[in-house]
Records
---
Amino acid sequence: MSLQPWAGALCACCGLPFPSSHALDSVEARCGECRNHQPAFDGARSYGLYTGNLRKAVLRVKFSGDERLGSHLGELLASTWDSLPHADELQAPLIVPVPLHPSRRRERGFNQSELLAAGLVRALARRSPPVNARLEKSCLLRKRPTTPQTGLSVSARRENLRGAFEVVAPDDIRGRAIVLVDDVMTTGATISACARALKRAGAGKVMGLTLARATPQFPDLAPIESDNTVDGFGQPST
Ligand SMILES: [Zn+2]
């Protein structure tokens, strides 16, 4: 399965891929959303576009919990690490997977973001010099189940997630650099809501690192809603 990283122009803040480099002619290479509504995270990047083989891989790990695939995809996250804004300032970062609501996690039996985060930590440890990152999967709680984000507007997504996340172990994260890991980022509302909770609890820099970016800006990107027909699984929640 060949997977392609995004190598084109992107938003300096949230990493949204731009269809052409013309957008970089503007004063600041930020997307409209980041200009209008500063996200709570300090920067975010994705490995590639949520399309083709990368989308298939994301869906497979999401619905099968395949640990080997999660590990492999974690290596792709590690290959994206250096493109994170402030990557060189992330000393002994905590890697925090975006949590599922406990009832959803029980039902599914695993959290795909944890599989990706564990693969990322292992891949970072193998680098030379190694990045001394630690998996921290219990400091952040999704305290209420949220309705699926698919089809919601950007502002409705933000509203849907208001107060959804809570830091349960603030002593563990105070002053620490944190990299949030998730499979797919669409508007960034989920990562931003997690980052807001972490910052309020005293975290240092908070970054977002996701495998795939879903964006309607690319005409060849099939609608996200079609995933349930492509793979016979439910719709992505983010
Ligand atoms: Zn942006």
---
Amino acid sequence: MRAMLVRSPQTPFESAVLPIPEPGPGEVRLRVRACGICHSDMLTVFGAWPGIAYPRAPGHEVAGTVDALGSGVTTVEVGARAGVGWHGGHDGTCRSCMRGDFITCKKARIPGISYDGGYSEYMIAPANVLAPIPDALSFEEAAPLLCAGITTYNALRHSGARAGDVVAVLGVGGLGHLGIQYARAMGFATIAIARGRDKEELARKLGATDYIDSQNEDVAERLQAHGGANVVLSTITSGKATTPVLGGLAIDGKLLVVGASMDPIDFVAARAIGSRISVQAWPSGTAADSADTLRFSAQSGVRPMIETMPLERAQEAYDKMMSGAARFRMVLTM
Ligand SMILES: [Zn+2]
Ligand SMILES: [Zn+2]
């Protein structure tokens, strides 16, 4: 099989031909049909995640078909359409797992980091992290929903916002363009916030009923004109650009952060207490959440905007994602 490997941190992808792997007990082999490229793939490329064993094939937005079953697997059949996202395994014994909270498992495994992921024609995954892919979604469409999709969908559905509430999505990019669609499909009054006017037309097409240009408008003031946002879903990485939305939250409003960044957000207690606002961060979700994301997307018409490239062009696709030029998710096809 063909795989695109990171041989060692900060080196270009290397095209390799490897033996097709055999699934162990409780595992399945997936024939990968599409794999989305996520910004977090840089953790493998840069060696920024502790303990990665190289060479490693990245990729945690994997859509394909079940190709072979390891011993003891009874939950899926060969030929089933299935996907794997960030949640690639849990130990079943830690404090989180004992509470059924598998996404926060202390020994969580991640495809493309803990083991070879979807930048490959075949991969092995535990059977209990597979999510069924509805027929209405192509493999290319399903792939980005398994990280970018689940992250925004699962965060929003747990945000406490109810139909009719004001939900703003900060950033119209890989995560944001999905966040807008989910917010609208869930019945929220959806506001998009981004720099400049370039993305306004698209944001409105995706379902935003208002658009705020954060460069030239007072974001807090504009949100307060709507009565304040019950939830702001932040998909961006700049703390400085996120901070102003705190002033635009409604009473009991929530800043919901899914854009993984090391950049601090300024939270001033004296300005927050009076309106009981809160900040919450959210990590994607488990296989069950992936299944819900895919089903909801299929039934509500939410689709990622993608650009596909063949597996062999992983370097070019990855570089395009990293440069910010992707509109909006790059997907490798096999
Ligand atoms: Zn991801
Ligand atoms: Zn655990």
---
Amino acid sequence: MCFEELDIDLLIVGGGSAGTMAAIRAKEINPDCNVVIVEKAHIKRSGSITMGMDALNVMILPEKQTPREYAAVARDTCQGIADFGPSYTLAERSFDLLKKLENWGVFFPKDTCGDYQMLRIHMRGKFGVAMDEPDLKVMLWKRVGESGVVTYHRTTAVALLVEDEIVKGAVCLDLRTGKLRVVHAKTVILANGGAGRFGLPSSGYLFGTYDYPGNAGDAYSLAFQAGAKLTGMEYTASNTLIKDSNLPLLYITLTRGARLVNGFGEVLGEGAAHLKAEERIAELQRAGPLFIRMDHLPEEKIQEIEHVLFTTERPMQRRFWQQRKINFRTDPLELALTEIQLCGGHGISGMVVNRKAETTLDGLYAAGDAAAVPMQHLTGAFVFGQVAAESALGYMENKVFHKCRNNRLVKKTQADLDAFRDNSLAQVSPHDFEYKVRRTINEYVASPKNHYRLNRAMELMQGFHQELASKLIVNSTHDLGRAIEIRSIIECAYLSAAASNARQESRWGDRHKRTDFPDCDDVNWLKHIDVCRDKAFPSLKISFRAVE
Ligand SMILES: Cc1cc2nc3c(=O)[nH]c(=O)nc-3n(C[C@H](O)[C@H](O)[C@H](O)COP(=O)(O)OP(=O)(O)OC[C@H]3O[C@@H](n4cnc5c(N)ncnc54)[C@H](O)[C@@H]3O)c2cc1C
């Protein structure tokens, strides 16, 4: 067995929003701390931000709003399935985050009175703030480099090193050379996103997802295999986005006065977008196409919207509309319901964490979409990236650490990867295998759900899991990376179906609609459903936890 070994203090898996922020914070607290990020892609452009973002979707302005008010709104948005503590911490630390970003040069536009431009994107109150920073991800990448953090790009974490129920590092695969890198760390932060590449978009394009397609549910799979608890996996989120391009539009346009109309031209909503309404919009969407109209808006508003969409969000949007000859001043913009995903940022799925970002395993912390802090968005990724770094460094203080001596796990990981490579009977390309798995997710894991469909999903996912090593054609290290991702997608689908089967009620509109239990049942189901590994996959334990 040939692999490289590293001994470090803090390992951060994933160099997106939460991972880069965690690394920067760790170095602020202790510049001598040996911090390593392993990132599947390259941190300059990887993750949900990619370029920039137009808003921090959670923000509390001191003296105007309170964290308690926000935490109550977050709980109502989640129909009661949200712990108070993490939402409170998120809100409490949001303004310090804004000030920190402003100090770094991030631009937050102000209105004519000199106040931050607050947006209505929650059920009550204005708890979002406009931001205008097309280079946000590049800024984070530069700061990570300047702070002395070591980054291994094009390197994917394949398994966590766990001994005596303590997490002690990770086994990683270099996606360029195919070599294993075993990273021994005193503590680990999982910040490698949600399961964005999960359901199949209606375009059929595997990578044409709303969320960053590199987030294939690896975080949930790594945590599950290591024995950490996951929760909210039954919340299969899907969003109403721009038809065919799968890009966001509602928050940016509706908060600036645009109208949501149906195919008959009837106005269904105006001037506000909020998460709760998204569930309703998703239902209306099924009855026929919906559109955004802006022909009633003044020219300067339209230009403001175009500026946000074509610079900060995604510049390719300009070409997309131009090629279709659509002008915001005269034409309606068609929307469509997109693929389902599991996510802690726009949803409630992920690792069980408390307000210190501690998971249920010793030595393991989680931040961003990987963690179940409901609807935490970018604000949450940044705030809990910092919280996780603070907690991880606190954990290291005055502690004697023993390196993981048991190399059974490394051997097993190597054997699993070799099995993918040595497959003379393989017949199915990664593209075809993944397409089939994700088409099955659309058919059996998404709403409308029922006992038959969910059981069938679990059976089919077990079958895919067994067949993957023998049937998948793996001709290169790139294919090997795809094989690991497909395995994560299958495991997440299995966990989602199992949790959905356990929740015998309907909740969150289209996100968990059971035809055999059509009503929301607060008496019996106002609680979390946690899933945890039992022995090896597919054996799992389901438990119920009261909402904090
Ligand atoms: C299109 C879009 C628009 C959004 N707009 C807003 C907005 O305006 N305001 C707002 O507040 N929020 C917004 N959000 C949500 C917000 O961007 C996310 O919640 C947040 O960025 C998530 O950060 P993260 O660090 O958890 O994940 P990411 O930033 O996605 O980072 C995860 C990283 O992990 C890496 N990775 C994955 N698996 C592995 C592995 N096995 N090993 C190593 N690395 C791995 C990935 O390559 C990626 O770089 C938006 C999201 C999207 C998708």
---
Amino acid sequence: MGAIASVKLSEHSAGFRIETEQSAHQLILFPIGEMNEDVNFSEISQLILNLNPSVKNLLFDLRGVQSLNSGGVRSWILFIEQVRSRYACQFKNVNELFVEQASMLTNFFGRNSASIESFEGPYFCSHCKTRTIHMLKPTDVRMTKQSFTPPSFKCEQCDGDLEFDALEDEYFNFMRNVKT
Ligand SMILES: [Zn+2]
């Protein structure tokens, strides 16, 4: 694996950065912080354009984005459309914020179906009143035309059954656009 580098973005994007790690054919990108209208994705595109031509795949690790507003969503969609036209892109550890957007906006990960490795699933224990996040794979969720059934988990504290802590039909809607 290559070294981890932090991409310096313009000072307007103070609350946001992207760390990258390059291996032979792949660049892993970790966006971290607040994704809003101040984030300058053209700087990130520029970095990607300057990559070694041996890099064929981009892997986005999306667990580090803490907030996302409408300006950030717009810039992200344009950016993703652009990079997906040149690179095979995969997404992993997709956090709740991104799942919620992707379930509302079908082009959130690009117009064509996206390759999603794993994503967060929120669960709740009504006995302990605690919320926990489990990392799910698309194949963990049973999908029919009408409904989605997430996997079951036990509470680590009381061993009781956890409830899924979102509306399944809304939360998993993005899976209709996932490459299988
Ligand atoms: Zn519990």
